[in-house]
Structure to design on (197 residues):
């Protein structure tokens, strides 16, 4: 029985190098995400915001992503990622990660299970392992979705759209857990290989 194969569309000239940089390699995506989370200039700009709004954090994050992707990330070993999470990511990672796929600070409070006061208090300090892991999962899936779908706008829409292949859940709901993240990443890889959207 012959199967119909779809090929992934070629990148258009308007697509940033960001989308082709990771090429769906999880180790490269983790490297890019952690480079952005570790970006000292981005961290300082987030801390300096007089009024914290995710739209403004996203503008800063998008600029950092464009700058980081031009440097060419090197893949990270899973043990390296584990150690980074265990040590705790920068507190700013909560807002940077949230800005990639959420619209409001209220959404970020719900996703992380933290009040805005607590999120703000963690700026400039390392996160605990659970918050670090959740921030990485959300950013990893959003970056993968941007790579597969061609833009962060498409990725953001994807993250909030109920998906039949995910049991009717939205990817944003599922990335709260490691098992949910695996389901979403598997679904994205299926799409990248020509599966249904």
């Amino acid at each position: 029985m012959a199967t119909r194969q779809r090929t992934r569309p070629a990148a258009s000239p308007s697509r940033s190098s960001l989308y082709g940089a990771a090429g769906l390699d999880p180790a490269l995506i983790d490297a890019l995400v952690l480079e952005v989370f570790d970006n000292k200039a981005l961290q300082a700009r987030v801390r300096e915001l007089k009024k914290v709004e995710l739209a403004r954090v996203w503008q800063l994050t998008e600029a950092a992503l464009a700058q980081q992707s031009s440097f060419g990330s090197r893949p990270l070993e899973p043990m390296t990622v584990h150690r980074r999470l265990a040590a705790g990511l920068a507190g700013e990672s909560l807002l940077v990660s949230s800005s990639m796929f959420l619209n409001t600070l209220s959404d970020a409070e719900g996703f992380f299970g933290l009040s805005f006061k607590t999120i703000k208090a963690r700026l400039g300090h390392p996160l605990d392992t659970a918050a670090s892991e959740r921030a990485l999962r959300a950013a990893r899936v959003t970056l993968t979705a941007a790579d597969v779908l061609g833009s962060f706008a498409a990725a953001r829409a994807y993250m909030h759209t109920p998906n039949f292949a995910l049991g009717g859940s939205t990817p944003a709901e599922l990335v709260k857990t490691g098992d949910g993240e695996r389901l979403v990443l598997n679904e994205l890889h299926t799409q990248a290989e020509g599966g249904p959207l």
Observations:
- Residues 1-22 have pLDDT under 50 and may be disordered.
